[in-house]
Amino acid sequence: MQLSTLAELNAERAARRPAILVTDIASGEQRLVKAADIAADPLRNELATHLRMGKSGMVEAQGKRLFLNVYAPTAKLVIVGAVHISQALAPIAKSLGYDVTVVDPRTAFASPERFPDVPLIAEWPDVALPPLNVDHYTAFVALTHDPKIDDPALLHAFSRDCFYIGALGSRKTHAKRGDRLRAQGASDADIARIHAPIGLAIGAVSPSEIAVSIMAEITATLRLPAKEKEQAA
Amino acid sequence: MLNRDEDILKAAEDWRTSGHGVALATVVETWGSAPRPVGSNLVINDDGTFLGSVSGGCVEGAVVTEALDVISSGQPKMLEFGVADETAWNVGLSCGGTIRVFVEKVG
User: Fold this and answer.
1) What positions does the domain XdhC Rossmann occupy (chain A) (predicted)?
2) pTM of the entire predicted model
3) How many of the other CB atoms lie within 10 Å of CB of A60?
4) What digits encode the pLDDT tens for the residues A129-146?
């Protein structure tokens, strides 16, 4: 690998932008394809599939055996609300490899006893969220049921292009939430991005089951192509 | 996307920039049960210092030795380790899988 290629790859990784290193196994020839350049690449189908699955592997193309090494950022999960569901959700997300952070200004909820081994920020969203560098590789869930906390958190998530945004609440609650968020400048497209009621419809009842349905929905959003995603939702 | 690695690629860049010979080893194929997924990296410098892993520690010694060759020759190499291979008994992929590792010099 050329040092310049390695430096370029490291710069993309540091910026949390995915890139794929394409290596011709026979000759050792290499090129780095940045995520933004995939659409124009001759290998776009293979590159897009591998990136979506976060999976490296060999492909045969143009009579060559090419190795695609996918370097994608670690996915983050930001949980707003240190509630019972979050106590189940945080360890599930961690086991799936997510960097998990829990935010809740209510210190009675955001206590280390309730959330061992999870980074906890007992601050309001306007203080807690900006330093977290919420980005496209972030799943964002608002679970407090309290508009004073959930609403500003969701507005922050809209501005950061999170790949998944979910919020707890019935259809009725969600309709009211939509009105409030629009009054604060959110667009209809922003509101439409919220998965609510949150989670796949698996008949979840207990907090742990709801956590499973949320994590399943996040996984489907991350991994399924757009068309199948609609069918799952 | 979901695997956190210590930043070994940054270490490789820093080693090279400071004048070390550096090689990069990458798991490119696996069969059966393999301890580290395809795409895993091991970086090696000309002191024999290495970071990362391509197996659970079973074949790193052999990969480092080959990497030192690659650093001096500049020619990439494909290495294969598995129980079907006579030499694998020596370096020992005890999990029973087979892995193929591409080793290249960082120029």
Assistant:
1) 77-218
2) 0.74
3) 9
4) 999 989 989 999 999 999
Closest chain A residue to the Cα of B105, Cα to Cα: A1
Residue B48: which of B75, B36, B30, B66 has the closest Cα? Answer: B66
Q: Are residues A24 and A134 in the same domain?
A: no
Residue count of chain A, please give it.
233
The reply to whether A47 and A33 lie within a common domain is yes
* C-alpha to C-alpha distances, B42 to A78, A100, A193, B35, nearest whole angstrom: 31, 27, 40, 14
ipTM beyond 0.95? no
Three-state secondary structure call for residue A167: strand
Dump pLDDT digits (tens) for A143-198. Answer: 999 999 999 999 999 999 899 999 999 999 999 999 999 999 999 999 999 999 99
- Total number of domains in chain B: 1
Is the domain of A172 the same as that of A61? no
Determine contact: A60 vs chain B, CB below 8 A. no
In chain A, residues with a C-beta closer than 8 Å to the C-beta of B7 are 13
